[in-house]
Design goal:
There is one protein chain. This protein has 129 residues and is mainly beta. It has one domain: Immunoglobulin-like (Sandwich). It contains one helix and eight strands; from the N terminus they run H-E-E-E-E-E-E-E-E. The strands form two sheets. It has a four-stranded antiparallel β-sheet with strand order 1-3-6-5, with no helix packed on it. Strands 2-8-7-4 form a four-stranded mixed β-sheet, with no helix packed on it. A hairpin with a 5-residue loop joins strand 7 (103-113) and strand 8. It starts with a helix and ends with a strand.
Amino acid sequence: MLALAALFMSFSPIHQSSASLNVSSVAKTASIKWKQVEIDLGEITQNKPVTVEFEFTNTGELPLVISGVQASCGCTSTNFSKTPVLPGETSKVSAIYNAASKGSFKKTVTVTTNAEEAVKVLTLMGSVI
């Protein structure tokens, strides 16, 4: 009896090795490739808003959805596509920085998506004159 049970279990799909699994069972994902993740604005004028555009491409197999964009301070506002970015398409996240005081600055914009790398921190920097 034991030998018969062992024989049946050897044919059970539960005991298949991972090497024999079908490659098509791998989950498809959205993937994002940024053109730049850090932009140096150089010298900018105080109280004159400057727009920075962080361009990206959906290099995955599923539509890319941006679920949130958060600036590191109130002096920076953001804008981004609320519609899904299809595979192969390019879009951008805009940051509008309005410097109230002179001197060097380094601001960040945190982007949350459904991509493999779900959270990405983008940086803009420069000097206010």
